[in-house]
Amino acid sequence: MKTLQEIRSQLTKTRADIENMTAEIVRLDYTEEKRTAARDGLFNKQTWKEYAEAAQANAGKIAELTNKIYVAEVEKRILQANARVALIEEATPIILAACQKYNGKPYGEKTAEKICIPNDTLKERSIQGADLVGKYGFPKLDPAHAYLEDLRPVAFTQAKSEKKPRECVAHFFVMDDAFERVWTNLAQHLDYLEYFAYVCSPDFSIYSDMPLTLQLYNVYRNRALAYCMSQNGISVIPTVGWSDESSYDFCFDGLPKNSTLAVSTNGCFTKSGITNYQMGFTEMCKRLEPREVLVIGKQIEVNCGVKITYMDSFGQQMTKRLKGGA
Q1: Measured distance CA(41)–CA(52) in Å, rounded
Q2: Do 79 and 11 meet the contact criterion of CB atoms below 8 Å apart?
Q3: What's the pLDDT at 248?
Q4: Do 237 and 262 meet the contact criterion of CB atoms below 8 Å apart?
Q5: What is the 3-state secondary structure (H, E, C) of 292-321?
Q6: Which residue, 48, 156, 301, 304, is most buried by CB atoms nearer than 10 A?
C-alpha cells in the first residue's frame, strides 16, 4: 500500500488527465452549432467534403478519448478508496497514542490548549480541569455540607443589593432571563456572590415539551456554572432539576451523592406538575441519597426519608411584603 501522500499525488494527476481529455472531446466534437455554421458557409476555407472528413476522423478520436476517460474514472475511484484506507492506517496510531496519553485525565488537561475560539464563546474555560461524567459528559460537582439554620433566602435579582449576605442563601429560582447574564459573563458577578454563606447553583429551566437538545444544554450550563463558581471560592449548593421521567437519563449526571441539594417547587402546582415533582424528588433521593434538601417555594408532600428545609421563594417574599408581613 502506498502512502497517503503518494496516493493523493496520483489522484491529482488522474483528475487532471480526465479534465484534459474532456476538454479535448469538447474541442473535437462537431456540435449542432458547428454543423449550422458549416451549412451556412461560415467556416473559412472548409468545404462540406472537408467538414465531413474532419467529423469522421474526429469521431474516432472522441470514441478513443471516451474509453480512456472511463478507465481513468475507474482508476480515480480506486485511488479514492485507497486514500481512505491509507488515512485510517496512518491516523489510527496517532489517535491511539493521544487516547493513551490523556486516558483518565480531567477535561482541562485534555483541552485547555485547544480553546482557541475568539472570546471562548462556548465557555469551555468554565469547565477547565473538571471531570466529565455521565452519558453526555457533564462536569462533576463536589458535595456540599451546608448548615442552613437561621439563613434567609435571597433571589439572584436581589443579591447585589443584599446588606448581610453572610446570613443568606442566594438562589436562581427566578425567570431564566434574569440570570442569563451570569452565563454570558460570570466574572462580573463573583465579587458579590462570594460573600453569601451559600449559593444554590444556577437553575436554567428544563420542561418536558422542550427539545431534548435544549434540555441537555440547560443542564450543562447549570453544571458548568456551578463548577466554575466552586473553583472561584463560592460555597455552592448543587441545584437539581428535571422535567419528566425521560429526563432522568441525564438530569442527575454530575451531581454529588450524600450532599446538601437544592430544588424548587416554582411552577409545579398543576396536577401533572405535582406528579412530576413528586416522582422526580423520589428518583433524586434514590440516585443521589442527599443528606439534606433545601426546597425553595411552597411545600409539596413527598414520601422520602430525607431531611427537608423549606424557604420562601421570591414570589412568596414579595407577597408577604405587600401584605405587610415579615
Answers
A1: 14
A2: yes
A3: 96
A4: yes
A5: EEEEECCCCCCCCCCEEEEECCHHHHHHHH
A6: 156
- SS3 of residue 68 by DSSP: helix
d(CA 90, CA 64): 38
* Identity of the amino acid at 92: T
Where does the pLDDT of residue 58 fall: very low under 50, low under 70, confident under 90, or very high at 90 and above?
confident
- Gyration radius of the chain over CA positions: 34
Q: Are strands 132-133 and 138-139 parallel, antiparallel or unpaired?
A: antiparallel
Question: Average model confidence (pLDDT) for the chain?
Answer: 85
CA distance 292 to 28: 86
Contact 268, 283 (CB under 8 A): no
* pLDDT of residue 117 exceeding 50: yes
Q: Quick: pLDDT tens for 241-254.
A: 999 999 999 999 99
Domain boundaries, the chain: 4-102, 122-322
Q: How high is the pLDDT of residue 241? A: 96
* Unique residue bearing C-alpha cell 486514500: 83
Instruction: List pLDDT tens digits, range 131-147.
Output: 888 888 899 999 999 99
> In the structure, what pLDDT confidence band is assigned to residue 108 with cuts at 50, 70 and 90?
very low
Question: Smallest Cα–Cα separation from 306: which of 271, 282, 322?
Answer: 282
Residue 202 in contact with residue 183, Cβ under 8 Å?
A: yes
Question: Cell numbers of 317, please?
Answer: 417574599
The per-residue DSSP string of 214-232 comes to HHHHHHHHHHHHHHHHHHT
Length of the chain: 326
**73: helix, strand or coil:** helix
- Amino acid 190 reads L
Q: So what's the pLDDT on residue 110?
A: 37
* Helix H or strand E segment including 154: strand 152-155
> Degrees (nearest 5) of the Cα angle 157, 160, 164?
115
